[in-house]
Every structure is written in C-alpha cells, then in structure tokens.
Amino acid sequence: MTIVVGHLATPEGQEALRTAVSESRERKAPLVVVTSGKRPLDECQAELDELRSGPAAGLDVRLEEGTGDLAEDLIRTATSTGAELIVIGLRKRSPVGKLILGAGAQRILVEAPCPVLAVKV
C-alpha cells in the first residue's frame, strides 16, 4: 500500500505534498510523488532530494514521471501501486467556481481506486 500525491509547484500542490508526507509517516506507507510532466524531471528530482533530506527523512519516497495529464497519472499510479490514499490540493474558488469543483479534481474523486484526501491552503 502506498500514498500517492502529485508534484505541483503551486501553493495547493505544496500543501498536498506536506499532507502526503505526514500521511505516509503516520501510516508507515511508501510515498509515490507523481510529477506534473510539465517541468524537467531533474528539477523535480532535486526538489524530491531536498524533501528526502528534510520533512520526508527516513520515508520510502519514489518519484514517478507524469505525462502531463495529472488526473490520469494519479489514477494510474494509484491503481498500479495498490495505493491506500491519493492526496490532492484544491484552491480557493469564487462563489460561482464552487459549483464546479474542477475537471481534474472531479475526475480523480470519481475514478480513484482508493480514498482521496483533498486539502486546501
């Protein structure tokens, strides 16, 4: 069983990553960090190395390269790893925006093979 989280350089993405590290530690589960596919892998790897030496020290953390469709990548990774949890970050929305969750988040919630923890900043 693993914890799966997307790696995004947004405040929501960073909060999701912090929460995923905490869940991984609490559950004693490996953490799989999926890149967005929009940034160079070596840049993401450097950030992951920093994470491993800091907040995620001592955890089993693996990086998986995304294809650019983060919702699909998280669902696929959760399925292939037998994940027990997917962690996603949500941003604050306007009153009208609250009627629509967001295509990616909605897709993850509907298609995920495991529970999804949505965190906000």
From TrEMBL:
InterPro entries assigned: Rossmann-like_a/b/a_fold, Universal_stress_UspA, UspA
Pfam family, one: Usp
SUPFAM superfamilies in the cross-refs: Adenine nucleotide alpha hydrolases-like (SSF52402)
Location of the UspA domain: 51-120
Family indicated by similarity: Belongs to the universal stress protein A family.
PANTHER family associated with the record: STRESS RESPONSE PROTEIN NHAX, UNIVERSAL STRESS PROTEIN UP12
Protein's UniProt name: Nucleotide-binding universal stress UspA family protein
